[in-house]
Every structure is written in C-alpha cells, then in structure tokens.
Amino acid sequence: MKNKVTIVGGGNVGATAAHWAAEKELADIVLIDIIEGMPQGKALDLMETRPVEDFDTKVVGTNDYKDTANSDIVVITAGLPRKPGMSRDELLDVNKKIVQGVTEQVIKYSPNAILIIVSNPLDAMCHVAKMVSKFPKHRVFGMAGILDTARFRCFVSMELNVSVEDIQAMVLGGHGDDMVPLPRYTTVAGVPITELMSKEKIDAIVSRTRKAGGEIVALLKTGSAYYSPSAAVVQMVESVLKDKKRVVPCAAYLEGEYGIRDLYVGVPIKIGAMGVEQIIELKLTDEEKAALNKSANAVRELVQLITI
C-alpha cells in the first residue's frame, strides 16, 4: 500500500512541493486548497507531466478534506505570504486562524498523521498546530532550519566557487531575523570556513542569510520564495517516509534542551519514520548561546500572543 501525503495550500509553495514529491515518487499526493478548481487544475497538470518525466505518482487536487483521509504526513503551507515591508510577525493573527482551521480538519480525517508546518511565522504556527491537534511533540514540527541552512550553504558556495555538495552548515533559532547561523560548524569538505575566508566575508554571509527571505520578497515585488522552501520540506517528508534518519535543523518542541523549555525553536534533529526521533544538542559558546536565547525569546513573544 502506497504512502499518502497531503499538502494543504495549493499556492506556489504547496504546488511546488507537490511537484518535487511526485517526481521523487515518495507517495500519492493530495493537494488541497479552498479555491475551487485551482488544486484540481494543478494536480491534473502535474499528472500530465508523468509521461514526460517518467514517474507514476498519483496526484489529486481537491477542496474537500475527506479526500485527505488516512494521510501519513500532512504538510501545512496554507496562509498569506509576506508582502514587501511586512515582517513575519505581522502575519501572526491572520495565519493563526488559517492554521487553526486547517489543523482541525486534517486531524479529523488523519488522526495518526505527522504534521509538518511551513506556514509563517513558522515557529509560532508550529505551536498553533500542536495546541489544536494535541499530537505528541515528535509528530508536529516545522520546516525552517533546513531552508535557512540551505541558503547559508548556497551563499558560501557562491563566495568560494565550490560545490554545495561539499558544504555542511548549521543554522539554529527561530525562522526570522534573529536566526543563528553557526560559522564554527560550517565546513567545506571538512575544512572550517574560518580558514577559507575572512571574518568580514563570513559576517556578510551570516547577515545575508538572516535577510534571505526578505531579499527574495523585495526582488519578486509580489509573493515570496517557493522553490527553496518547498524543496526543503520535501527533504523532511522523504526522511520520514524512507526512515532515513537525516540530521537536519528544524523547528522542534524543546523541553529543556539548550536551556529552552516549552517552545518551538530551530535545532538539529534526527528525522525518521516516527517524525522527530532525537534532538541533538550542540556545544555552544557563550556568544552562540546568547544569540540562540535572543532568537528563542523573539519566538516566545509571539507565542504568548496566541490564544486558541
């Protein structure tokens, strides 16, 4: 019996995630959105690429949550995108209501699913999904650190003119301007980047990584990034379905790790068939700890505004 993945939100992020996942033949895909005809059209379009790209994934578009029943994973991308000049924090109230309603529907039909959150502000939306679903923490987590780390790796690759395949990196903290890239844990084929470029260049890359989402929003004028966020969440889906045990940074619920309690924060986790199978604690310097705490406090301020 094939796995089943539901993607909530048929916009750019959701539809592109459906594309990546279908092409990888990870599972049968259900793409759901409130706009009539839109998910059906995108699903049919994807189905018609199968003879060209040689994959046999079934993709269904729908407006009815009954079609999502018995999903193994539900990816929630629904919500309003950021507009130029808008912070993730400003999205809080409107997207809270959207994610709350979506979560209520998906758990009704897929009570055993793993929920992966993409909606912004991401760390806060993870809290909404967990509060509404009442699922255990290993079955509700968020895409953030994978994307932020991918951007960090990309910028290092661009600066050094080396393959991204040889770059390992780590970005902790909330998915926002206070995220914490860790140059000390960033290497090129095992060589620390501190030996390959100046502190000034590293600081510039760290700054660009923190502002990377806003940089794309400003360039697009309307909408926000979708190729990289969708690819990042599909990496998480793949690690669950294939029980790959990938160690990647994601928004996970902490209960004392890193000195942080009762909060979703980006940290390295092991992703397998159960979802979040382990939270990995890195040894941080005092400066790194302070930066992570600052980022966590920014998330906590948002979470304290959430009422369900």
CATH class of the largest domain: Alpha Beta
Low-confidence stretches: none
**What do the pLDDT scores average to?**
95
**Which range does the strand content fall in?**
15-25%
Query: How large, in whole angstroms, is the Cα Rg?
Result: 19 Å
The CATH topology name of the largest domain reads L-2-Hydroxyisocaproate Dehydrogenase, Chain A, domain 2
- N-to-C span: 36 Å
What's the total helix number? 10
**Range of helix content:** 40-55%
In total, the number of domains comes to 2
Counted beta strands? 14
CATH architecture of the largest domain: Alpha-Beta Complex
Major sheet: 6 strands, parallel
The multimeric state of the shown protein is single chain
**Morphology:** globular
The spatial strand order of the largest sheet comes to: 3-2-1-4-5-6
Structural class: alpha/beta
Concise structural overview:
The protein is an alpha/beta fold. The protein has helices spanning 12-23, 38-47, 50-53, 92-109, 122-133, 145-160, 199-210, 212-220, 227-241, 286-303, and strands spanning 4-8, 28-32, 59-62, 73-76, 114-117, 140-142, 167-168, 171-172, 180-181, 187-188, 191-192, 246-255, 261-272, 275-279.
